[in-house]
Amino acid sequence: MLAVLTAEDLKPLKLHWMPTLAGDVQAVVADEKVCFQNQEGAMVIATHRYIAADGGDLVEVEDEPLPALVELAEKYGCIMMIDDAHSSGVLGKNGRGTVNHFGLDGRGFGLLLAG
Predict the structure, then answer these.
(1) pLDDT tens digits for 48-71?
(2) What is the dihedral of CA 83, 41, 28, 21, to 10 degrees?
(3) pTM score of the predicted model
(4) Domain containing 14 — which CATH number?
C-alpha cells in the first residue's frame, strides 16, 4: 500500500473538490462529513487491487449513533430510512439488525431495507 488519502490530504493540493461534466464541483472524498450513502471517505493507493482492498478494510470511520438520529427524526416529524443490509444477521438479538441492536424496535421507521 502506498497511501491512504482523505480530503485533508488533498486540500493543500486543491484537489479535494473537482469540476464535473455538469459544470459544478463535487467532493472527491467526503470533506468533514459524508453527505450521502456510499460517498467515498478515503482513497487507497496501492500497487495491486488486493492490497488496496485490504487497506480499505483498515480505514476507520466515525459515525453518528443511531439513537440520536432517531430522536431528531421524531422531533421534527421526519421519516427515517435505514439500509440494514449489512447488519441483518450480524447485529442485534438473533441477528435482527441495527434497529434491534440499539433497542429501537417499535420506533417509527419509514423504510427499513434488509438483505
Answers:
(1) 999 999 988 888 777 667 888 888
(2) -10
(3) 0.51
(4) 3.90.1170.50
